[in-house]
Amino acid sequence: MSSRRIPRVKSFFLIKAEKQYAKFVLIEIFTFLIGFSIFYLLTNNLKINYIISAIMVGIINFQTSYFLNKKITFNKKIKKHFERTYFKFGFIRIFSGGVYLILFFIFVNFVFGSLYLSYFLAIFIGGLTNFVLNKFFNFNKN
Q1: Model confidence over 55-94: pLDDT tens digits?
Q2: How many C-beta neighbours within 10 Å does residue 91 have?
Q3: Number of H-type helices and E-type strands within the chain
């Protein structure tokens, strides 16, 4: 009997993680669309350097992403430890943003040469890093 429970419990957690990841992806797509629009405006219309533009967009998207993911993806109503989760989210965002910026620079200058293809791929990898770290180190059950 207990051997039957383990696969069910394991599959329950996998399904929950998949649903969370789907919500995370939808929120990140939303913030990405906003961010990419701003990035495009900054780089093409205002002629701001692409790295500075990417940093500015990262700061803007941080706020949106934190509040939407906290509430919708991870279903947390954090009141008691708001500062701690916000700080952790920020640290994880900075780390995954660093991954994104390094990959973005490498992709633009050494791999693809295409600014926009590099942006998409670097955002995807940075976003996946962000989800995994937040899932296990910030919005876990502890």
Answers
A1: 898 888 888 888 888 888 877 766 667 778 888 888 998 8
A2: 13
A3: 4, 0
- 102-114 per-position pLDDT tens digit: 999 999 999 988 8
CA proximity to 124, closest of 48, 49, 36, 43: 36
Give the whole-angstrom CA distance, residue 50 versus residue 39.
8
**Quick count: other Cβ atoms within 10 Å of Cβ 45?**
8
Measured distance CA(36)–CA(134) in Å, rounded: 23
The amino acid at 27: I
**In sequence order, what are the residues at sequence separation of 6 or more whose Cβ sits closer than 8 angstroms to the Cβ of residue 117?**
107
Q: State the DSSP string of 55-100.
A: HHHHHHHHHHHHHHIIIIIS----STTHHHHHHHHHHHHHHHHHHH
CB 93 within 8 A of CB 130: yes
Do 123 and 100 touch, CB atoms closer than 8 A? yes
Q: Give dist(CA 48, CA 60) in Å, integer.
A: 16
